[in-house]
Amino acid sequence: MKIKNKEIDLEHTRKAIICIGAGTAVGLFVYGIFLFFNIAIFGWNLGLIFAPVAAGYVETVLANKIIGENVGAISAFILFIYTTFYSFILKNPTLGINLITAGSIIIILQAAFPTLVNYIILVVLGGILSNFINHFKNFGKYLKIRIKNRSLFHWEPQSVEIRTEPIPYFDEAASNETINNLGFYFITSTDLKDMEHSIIGIYQSEVIIEKDVRLINLEPERKEQEHLKKIKEGKDECLIKLANQIKSNGGNGVLDLSMNYALIGLNGDNIQICAMGMGVKLIS
Q: 46, 79, 172, 240: most buried, per Cβ within 10 A?
């Protein structure tokens, strides 16, 4: 049993060495291409980055297919050591640590330890960045409140007379009287029983109540009352418009009357009121 396990271990090691050797060979080939064609940016040959990446990639793919697991991107380390020695010691010993070598180290660590590196980059650094952004936002809100309250520089507010346009008064009783004096029948049903009538057509009217900035500084209860008054005023205006449309075409009533209310606008600040029904002429 022990001999069999040793044979399995030796076979596993042999396959791992083959994968590492294949990755190293591909990495050297890629590095040679970059050197031959002198593919560089600002004097730095890009093979320093792409050669270890190619080596680690080939090794990882072969190891997953042959062995069924990752052997650690060892060929990437080999290529990094070789390219660093060749470029910075053998060819130009005056060069030191720079952005290219730092980038190569990060890429190799990513290939060898993807879970650890991704955790550091995504979780740790992401958490630090998110925490910094939240603190910055909170500071911005705090600064905005202090400036709004004029307490940041501790100056005394001057007495300034603020003139606001008064909110127009809505006379609900007068509006109801106007509707009642139209000489018009508003019927929500379609059943007229034995009343003679002629159909004129389908009619629709709409009224849009825009956001009133004058209501912002009111107390919540007063603000709600004013909103309800504006909706009632808009509803009455919509009914009057509908009645006038039908009357202009010889009618004196509307059947199957329906009222629809909807929030419109970018933030739903405006209210759309729509009245619809079938215009008719009732014969007494």
A: 79
Cα 15 to Cα 22: distance, rounded to the nearest angstrom: 11
Burial class of 116 by CB neighbour count within 10 A (0 to 12, 13 to 18, 19+): exposed
Strand partners, 280: 199, 253
Q: Which of 238, 244, 240, 276 is nearest to 257 (CA)?
A: 276
State how far the Cα of 18 lies from the Cα of 24, in Å rounded to an integer: 10
Residue-level pLDDT at 273: 92
DSSP assignment of 92-127 = -TT--S-HHHHHHHHHHHHHH-HHHHHIIIIIIIHH
pTM as predicted? 0.42
List 275's β-bridge partners, or say none: 205, 259
Looking at domain 172-283, its CATH class is alpha beta
- Determine the pLDDT at residue 7: 59
The tokens describing 159, both together, are 């007495």
Q: Confirm if 178 and 232 have CB atoms less than 8 A apart.
A: no
Domain ranges of the chain: 2-112, 172-283
Cα 234 from Cα 211, distance rounded (Å): 13
Q: How far apart are CA 157 and CA 155, in angstroms?
A: 6
Are 194 and 260 in contact, with CB atoms under 8 Å apart? no
Spans in the chain with pLDDT lower than 70: 1-8, 42-44, 72, 87-127, 130-131, 142, 144-166, 284
Rounded Cα gap, residues 252 and 203, in angstroms? 13
